[in-house]
Amino acid sequence: MQANNRFSQQTKSFWACVRVIGEAVGYTVRGKDTIRVPTLKEMHDAYAALNLSTAALGGVATPSLLAVELHAYFEYRADILNNYVRERLMDVAAAKALFKKLKTQYRPTCPIPMNKQKGDKKAEAYFTGIINTLIQANIANASCDYDPRNLTSITSNDSPLRTLSRRVDGAFPSAIDPVAIWEIKEYYYTTTFGSRVADGVYETLLDGMELQELFEHEGRKVLHYLMIDSHRTWWKSGRSYLCRIIDMLHMGYVDEVLFGREVEERLPEIALGWLAKQKHRRPD
């Protein structure tokens, strides 16, 4: 999914408010399988509890434009997660079935890595396999690095202009001067939302901040994608982090987030877009 234009142009102070309220009020409803929408009173109470002035929010009965926009965003975020994202997240059986279907359909020759499990659970990394297969099927014979082993670098006049802090999971056409990079987070066998999974969210945030700085100061745009799956991990254990991911998308730190089976719906069009951008990209 892409950002909603209504909220993608908000200021950094708006997102500071979103984070403060989310942390104070909470992201989920205790005992319910749903995302929380803070009320205007809860927003006021959150500010008061932190000794922050509520003047910018207006009154509970007479909310300011900021308060109205915040509430509208919380409603949008809850709706998109409850009614769009939740139904697209797969479990391991669904991911395996989709991978097998696409493998039979496209007969990929791209790398299909194995997961990191042992014994009966050891198998192909289904979600990564789905992604790699769909990309290869739509870029034809174009180059693509499905497993970059070096840091992403953007160059100018054959010299490094920026180099990202960490390796990514994929780059088109390569990790040097890419049109697009992506991160894949598939956690089918994770039983809790641990620090490793949470770190994955913040790693994507770091990449996004570095790419935003690159664009703002050098005018170089690299498309940035996050693709995640596992209904149990993300929905049952990590709904608060799904909220943070939607926030990150609207803050402009990632161009698009693909949730579970959404990769089958969107990746073909996205990959064709990469080809078009590569064809028309000016040399530096």
Short description:
With about 280 residues, the chain is α/β, with parallel strands linked by helices.
Assembly classification: single chain
DSSP summary, beta strand count: 6
In angstroms, what is the radius of gyration? 20 Å
Strand proportion, as a percent range, falls in 5-15%
Helix content: 40-55%
- Shape descriptor: globular
Overall pLDDT metric: 95
Q: Could you list the spans in which at least 5 consecutive residues all have pLDDT below 50?
A: none
Strand order of the largest sheet: 3-4-5-6
Largest sheet: 4 strands, mixed
Helical/strand content category: alpha/beta
- The number of distinct structural domains comes to 2
Protein model, in words:
- The protein has 284 residues and is α/β, with parallel strands linked by helices.
- It has 2 domains: 5-88, no CATH class; 92-280, no CATH class.
- It has helices at residues 5-8, 12-25, 40-49, 65-88, 92-106, 126-139, 195-218, 231-237, 239-250, 262-280, and strands at 153-156, 159-163, 170-172, 180-186, 223-229, 256-259.
- Helix 7 (195-218) links the parallel strand 4 (180-186) and strand 5.
- Helix 2 crosses helix 3 (40-49), helix 5 packs parallel to helix 6 (126-139) and helix 6 crosses helix 10.
- The two termini are 31 Å apart.
- The mean pLDDT is 95.
Secondary structure layout:
Elements: H1 5-8, H2 12-25, H3 40-49, H4 65-88, H5 92-106, H6 126-139, E1 153-156, E2 159-163, E3 170-172, E4 180-186, H7 195-218, E5 223-229, H8 231-237, H9 239-250, E6 256-259, H10 262-280
Helix pairs in contact: 2-3, 5-6, 6-10, 8-9
Characteristic key phrases:
284 residues, 2 domains, alpha/beta, 10 helices, 4-stranded mixed sheet
